[in-house]
Amino acid sequence: MQGSSARLFYLSHLCTGALIAAIGCAGGDDGGATSGSTSTSGQASAGSSSSSSSESSSSRGEGGSDSATTGDSATSTGAATEQSSGSSADPSTGDEPADPRLEALITYAPRVWLHSEEQYFPSSVEFAFAEMTRSLGGDGRFWIRSKAGLGSPSDTLPFFAGELATAPVYAFYADKGEGVIDLVYFFWYPYNRGKSAVDTIWGNHVGDWEHITVRLLRGDDESLSPAQVYLSAHSFGGAYDWLDVERYDETHPVVYSAWGSHGLWRDPGDHVYMTIGEEILGVCATLVCIDLVDRTDAGIAWDTWQRLVGFDYGEQTGLGGAAWPVWMDDDFTAPGPAPAEVPGGGPIYRWGDPEDCSTLGVDISDLIGVCRLEDGPTGPVSKGVWGAELQ
Question: What region, left, alpha or beta, does residue 345 occupy, with left being phi > 0 and alpha being psi -120 to 50 degrees?
Fold first, then answer.
């Protein structure tokens, strides 16, 4: 969920106060939280969850809250989605990775509960690259965008559905010094679906990067122990103490991904994260006044340690045989080693199509605070997670 900052801040002034870092509030975030270890709009409030209501045009999985999953599959209430282990150790054999950095990344990788009615699943970046092209944007930096054009800002393309069975988590070991190690897990989705208001969908964007961070502290005996977990949602996020987060098999934090927008929450249920519009004396004084709600449930368990690609951020190297990706280069004006139009051949600044704010040919985004189609998000290298703050 990620995108256009000026419009994002406009929307935040219309709300009761909130935000993160990059795409539209109504279903888009840039993945890099601006709030450090503080929370906004209730994301980090202890135990905040409400009953889940569900309205969605299509269903994938039947939902359910059973978190007892075998170590070699992702489950959707009984229906297994097979996942293999990428560059990590194979959990079915019990083999340990030789590299302690990779071992730590696997040990603390999260279980992500995707919504039972989710339609827009994660994938590998290569899965999406096959349907995208790379070119210079109007800002002089390289963007990727879908090869097939969108007829309208709310249209979708087949590859937006993603491919959960082969989706990896992109996991970064980041030594921050002074005994602090951050394990940063990035999830890529080809599409973010926005929220419904005024008879249309607002805040869609092609491309969606989400992340969580597990912070480890090094003890006097050099052992590492988990201390905190940070969850990103829209343009903000929240930090929690390790003991306050649900865990699977003791070491894997459990998080809940919102339908369509993929914002990450600690609890299942409905989460109001922002209010669009302004009321005066109980009367809506703007085009629309509406709560924006993320819906989460324990629908489809994605055990990310089963397919994990690991990296050392400080050394800029891959772990366990992985190669450092060219899309983690931040020289966004450089064509890269491959032909410029090849998405995986050079640095990427924006991971999706440019914004389209038109409604019946008229731009009314200033009246609602968000476009129908927001700019694609920036990628992991552009996020605020690499500094000292927990983001």
Answer: alpha
